[in-house]
Amino acid sequence: MVCTAFAFILYFRLIADIGPVKSMTVTFLIPLFGVFWGVLLLDEQLSWAYLYGGVLIALALWLVLRPPREETK
């Protein structure tokens, strides 16, 4: 419970510092870290599906964080 409370404090501080949109990137990275820890600590096997999923996550991050297009007149 203490670790969760500390994580929420850090997350809300992150929202205040960099804004809510960029703070959402934390939730995009959770699956990647889950796979990483599973391979490292639980000796899980990697497959091509993880690569495809990682590419999808990277694409989603790029779409969220890319600079807005300038409107042409």
Structure description:
With 73 residues, the chain is mainly α. It has four helices and no strands. Helix 3 (25-42) packs antiparallel against helix 4. The chain is flat. The mean pLDDT is 86.
The biggest beta sheet, please?
Answer: none
Protein structure class: mainly alpha
What's the order of the H and E elements? Answer: HHHH
Termini gap: 54 Å
Unreliable stretches (pLDDT < 50, length at least 5) are none
Mean pLDDT: 86
Beta-strand content: under 5%
Supply the number of helical segments: 4
* Helical residue percent band: over 70%
Number of beta strands: 0
How do you describe this structure in short?
The protein is mostly helical and 73 residues long.
SSE layout and pairings?
Elements: H1 2-18, H2 20-23, H3 25-42, H4 48-65
Helix pairs in contact: 3-4
What attributes does this structure have?
single chain; 73 residues; mainly alpha; 78% helix; flat
